[in-house]
């Protein structure tokens, strides 16, 4: 493997990440075109339905004739099928680059090796699996939606020092500090959806929008099997779309949540309350947990979700501790 492969693939990751929050359910993709160790063009997938990264990179090259002396780096195998846009692989082949270097093979059954095969058939060298794990991590939501046929699920809550998520009167609202809450708004801006249980809507009347960060609002999902919420709740205001999930019973949580992928929802941040979070934990229906632990104490209240974890590794957010756990 040539030593510079990793550097330029890193650059594709950096570019790809700029599309976060705007391209779902598509993957994050960046592309770099390099001639004589100089970048002569680059681009990323900026918005769902718009040009793919490869096309933006090609369009940015001044003299397209020189691409035949260049290497093209992409973090994901180029598409070979007609979707919202024509196949990128055809545009790449036309330019006859020296080689195409890829991090991940596209797991989408419509592509899955077909793009690579087409390039090789044209006699162009293809190198794959450069920083493969890092590439998969970058596109964890996309890979998960195809492999597990359900959205990537992040469980998030804030608890007091004595493990409570609400006080006795259910009017405690803020447990974590202002900076922690800013983190939460940043997280919301890159996930497709945000989910809560009906009681959280009743007690807190939250908007569940992005206000402490710049970015778009996720789709709001509320589990409301007894249809006990009315349209006056903020969650049904016009600031974002809301899906009222009223078909959940004791047995079908996995199925109902899995079916959200068909609505192009490939990630969910579940923000409470305890009852709802515990259901996801009990069904082993989660990929990440993000738990804020505050220094505050309540005299009695609602217990935080039940999950034992190592209390050693955390980030300090001023006086809060942030624990991030992954479901292996
Ligand atoms: N500290 C934090 O991070 C945090 C975050 C959010 C909320 N909270 C607090 O938590 C409290 C509310 O939490 P909570 O545990 O009482 O309630 P919750 O989880 O907000 O809502 C529970 C209700 O949602 C429905 N539901 C959710 N999942 C379901 C499932 N899998 N199957 C069937 N029904 C399901 C049921 O509605 P039906 O009863 O209608 O069937 C259930 O009673 C509030 O005080 C709020 O302030 C704290």
Question: How would you describe this protein?
Answer:
Strand 3, helix 3 and strand 4 form a beta-alpha-beta unit. The chain has 2 domains: 142 residues, 3-Layer(aba) Sandwich (Cytidine Deaminase, domain 2), CATH 3.40.140.10; 179 residues, Dihydrofolate Reductase, subunit A, CATH 3.40.430.10. It contains 10 helices and 15 strands. The model has no long low-confidence stretch (mean pLDDT 96). The protein has 328 residues and is of the alpha/beta class. NADP nicotinamide-adenine-dinucleotide phosphate binds next to strand 6, strand 7, strand 8, helix 8 and helix 10.
Name its key features:
single chain; 328 residues; alpha/beta; Cytidine Deaminase, domain 2; Dihydrofolate Reductase, subunit A; 2 domains; 8-stranded mixed sheet; 5-stranded mixed sheet; 10 helices; binds NADP nicotinamide-adenine-dinucleotide phosphate
């Amino acid at each position: 493997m040539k030593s510079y492969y990793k550097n330029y693939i890193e650059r594709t990751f950096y570019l790809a990440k700029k599309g976060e929050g705007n391209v779902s359910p598509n993957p994050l993709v960046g592309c770099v075109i390099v001639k004589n160790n100089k970048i002569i063009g680059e681009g990323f997938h900026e918005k769902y339905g718009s040009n793919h990264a490869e096309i933006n990179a090609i369009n940015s090259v001044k003299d397209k004739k020189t691409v035949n002396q260049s290497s093209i780096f992409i973090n994901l195998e180029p598409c070979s099928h007609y979707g919202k846009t024509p196949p990128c692989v055809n545009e790449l082949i036309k330019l006859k680059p020296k080689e195409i270097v890829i991090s991940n093979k596209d797991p989408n059954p419509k592509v899955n090796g077909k793009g690579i095969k087409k390039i090789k058939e044209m006699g162009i060298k293809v190198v794959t699996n450069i920083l493969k794990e890092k590439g998969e991590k970058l596109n964890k939501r996309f890979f998960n939606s195809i492999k597990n046929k359900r959205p990537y699920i992040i469980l998030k809550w804030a608890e007091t020092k004595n493990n409570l998520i609400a006080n006795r009167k259910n009017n405690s609202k803020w447990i974590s500090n202002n900076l922690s809450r800013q983190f939460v708004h940043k997280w919301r801006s890159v996930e497709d959806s945000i989910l809560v249980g009906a009681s959280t809507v009743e007690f807190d009347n939250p908007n569940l929008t992005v206000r402490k960060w710049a970015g778009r609002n996720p789709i709001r999902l509320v589990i409301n099997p007894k249809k006990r919420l009315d349209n006056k709740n903020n969650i049904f205001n016009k600031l974002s779309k809301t899906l009222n999930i009223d078909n959940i019973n004791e047995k079908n949580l996995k199925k109902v949540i899995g079916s959200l992928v068909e609505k192009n929802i490939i990630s969910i941040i579940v923000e409470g309350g305890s009852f709802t979070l515990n259901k996801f934990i009990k069904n082993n229906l989660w990929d990440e947990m993000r738990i804020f632990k505050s220094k505050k104490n309540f005299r009695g209240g609602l217990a935080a979700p039940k999950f034992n974890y190592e209390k050693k590794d955390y980030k300090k957010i001023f006086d809060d501790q942030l624990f991030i756990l992954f479901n292996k």
